[in-house]
Design brief:
Belongs to the class-I pyridoxal-phosphate-dependent aminotransferase family. One of its GO terms (biological process) is amino acid metabolic process. Its EC number is 2.6.1.-. With about 400 residues, the protein is α/β, with parallel strands linked by helices. It folds into two domains: about 150 residues, Aspartate Aminotransferase, domain 1 (Alpha-Beta Complex); about 220 residues, Type I PLP-dependent aspartate aminotransferase-like (Major domain) (Aspartate Aminotransferase, domain 2). Helices cover about 40% and strands about 15% of the residues. It contains 14 helices and twelve strands. Helix 4 packs parallel to helix 10 and helix 11 packs parallel to helix 13. The N and C termini lie far apart (about 45 Å).
């Protein structure tokens, strides 16, 4: 049998893909075991029926053939208008490529920005797929660590040290997994590094509608940055359309032209009836996005309240997104061991911090994606479990 390409076999860098606890939890559920799944960012309230009705009507009306590869003019105009209104940066359909979800957009952005073998910076902790996405695009991931005591915000000096020779810098604000929202000072430091080392900036902004403290600022809106920034967006989180696979890239017009060529030989566009449903959803404006986001802001507050008085668990208070990162180092376990033990003992599944890079070691990420009372009960159980481990002799906690 011929050998497979190293680009495929090396996607995980010879290690884990970070999803073991998720797979274990799903296997238990498939066997009929009840598990409280707090692993992935999947809304418990599914896509609004009105959006599905619009999708159904578009399909029945015949929008089921090949759609225009860059996206329909109507949807590209709607995305451009949303971006221009929220950022103040002039944006037209020529700056927009519609993609099959944000993940596809991340891959395409790195193909666009990174020559084969080039280092590509990514701020750590990072979404679990980022390193594999970079490797799949033919580049080499170069993580830039952050520290819990700094709120997991990137440090200018660390970025400057990592930047020589790199082609791009990937950041995510609001951040998955930490919930950090990068303020102007942080983003100005990022912009300074990008300009000093002539980097492309890839900005993953799929959580821009979920901000609990502060305000979302797109680095594309900073002076001089629109010419070197590619913004990844998606309907998945803002409109609970995860399974519809509808996202976009906003970039300089010349970049979009080349990305259309890439889409032509890879995805060949997004189904037209899904694009029509996205247009319907975007036309409802911030009110719909607010309704989708509201449960996560409410649950965030309830989780932080439930953790009060528990010494072995410390929350990293999230400013945005649909997760809470918990520091469990006081238990004597790393994040992976704690998550595995919690699943075994209480059938509660959370993501180990190590899934998001070494900077999150000793942490776990809790997704705020089950109804309030069930979530609070699970977090209280998690905290009590952590307290019991912290009180146990350290050798027993590690066994």
């Amino acid at each position: 049998m011929p050998e497979l390409s190293p680009r495929l076999t090396g996607l995980n860098g010879g290690g884990s893909d970070g999803w073991e606890v998720f797979y274990r939890a799903r296997a238990l559920v498939a066997r009929g075991v009840e598990v409280t799944e707090l692993t992935i960012g999947e809304h418990d309230e599914r896509t609004d029926p009105a959006i599905l009705d619009a999708m159904h009507a578009a399909a029945r009306d015949g929008h089921t053939g090949y759609a225009t590869v860059p996206g329909t003019d109507t949807l590209r105009d709607a995305i451009a208008a949303r971006v221009a209104e929220r950022t103040g940066v002039p944006t037209t359909r020529a700056n927009v490529l519609v993609t099959p979800g944000g993940q596809s957009a991340l891959f395409a952005a790195h193909v666009a920005c990174c020559p084969p073998g080039a280092p590509a910076l990514l701020v750590e902790p990072h979404y679990a797929t980022y390193p594999g996405t970079i490797r799949g695009a033919g580049a080499v991931p170069r993580p830039v660590p952050t520290r819990p005591e700094d709120g997991f915000l990137p440090d200018r000096a660390a970025l400057m040290r990592a930047a020589p020779g790199a082609a791009s810098l990937l950041l995510n604000t609001p951040n998955n997994p930490t919930g950090a929202v990068y303020g102007r000072q942080t983003l100005e430091a990022v912009a300074e590094v990008a300009e000093a080392h002539d980097l492309w900036l890839i900005s993953d902004e799929v959580y821009d509608s979920q901000v609990w403290e502060g305000a979302h600022l797109s680095p594309r809106a900073l002076p001089g940055m629109a010419a070197r920034t590619l913004v990844v967006g998606s309907m998945s989180k803002s409109h609970a359309m995860t399974g519809s696979r509808i996202g976009w890239i906003v970039a300089p017009e010349a970049v979009i032209g080349h990305l259309i060529d890439l889409a032509t030989v890879t995805t060949y566009g997004v189904p037209g009836f899904i694009q029509d449903a996205a247009c319907f959803a975007l036309a409802e404006g911030v009110a719909r996005e607010g309704r989708v986001a509201e449960p996560f802001g409410r649950r965030r507050a309830r989780v932080l309240e439930a953790l009060e008085g528990h010494a072995a668990v410390r929350a990293v208070p999230p400013q945005g997104a649909m997760y809470v990162m918990l520091d469990v180092r006081a238990t004597g376990l790393d994040g992976a061991a704690f998550a595995g033990a919690l699943l075994d003992a209480h059938r509660i599944a959370v993501m180990p911090g190590e899934s998001f890079g070494p900077s999150a070691a000793g942490h776990v990420r809790v997704a705020l994606t089950v109804p309030d009372e069930r979530l609070v009960a699970a977090v209280e159980t998690l905290a009590a479990f952590a307290d019991s481990l912290a009180r146990a002799p350290r050798h027993a906690a590690r066994s």
